[in-house]
Design brief:
Elements lengths: L7 H12 L3 H31 L10 H46 L1 H10 L4 H6 L12 H31 L1
Helix pairs in contact: 2-3
Amino acid sequence: SLVEGRQALPAIKRCWLLVRRRVWTSVGVIYLISIFDQLVMAGPLAIVAMFVLIPLQGMGYRDLTDLLPSLATGTVGGVLAAALTSVVVYPVSILYTSLWYLDLRTRFEGLDLSVRAYQRSGGSVATALRDAPPELNERFFRNEDMGQFFLMTVALFAIVAALWGVLYGGILAL
C-alpha cells in the first residue's frame, strides 16, 4: 500500500489479510462511499440537464443546426459541473477510505498503541504507520474465504438481477 511502502502484489495480500475479518462491513463501507460519489456527481449534472437540456425538447427545433448551440451549452455545462464536483468528491472519498484503513489497523493491529509508543520514544507517526506487522506465513485464501467470495458473487448477481427486473419492468409498463 502507499502508506506502508509495499509493492503491488504484497500490498494486495496485506489488504486482504487486513480486511478478511470484516469483509461484509468493508463491502458496505465501499458501497456507501461509491453511492456518495455517484449522488454528489449526479446532482450538478441533473441540474444542468433540468435547466438546459430538458427545456430544449419543447422548443420545436426544425433543423439540427438550430439545436447545436444549445446542446453545446448543455454539454460544456455538464463537463464543467462534473469537473468542479470531482474536485470536492474525490478528496472526500480518499479521506473516508483512509479512515477505514486506519480503523482496521487500530482494531486488529493496535495501531493506536504503536503510535503512542513511537511518540513516547521520540519517533514520528509516519514511522509508526509504515511499520506494519511483518508478513504472516498465512495462506492467501482459506476455505472460508472461498465461501465468502461465493456469497458475495451470489449477492452481486441477485442485486444485478433485481435492478434489471426493476428496469425492464418499468420500461415494459410504459
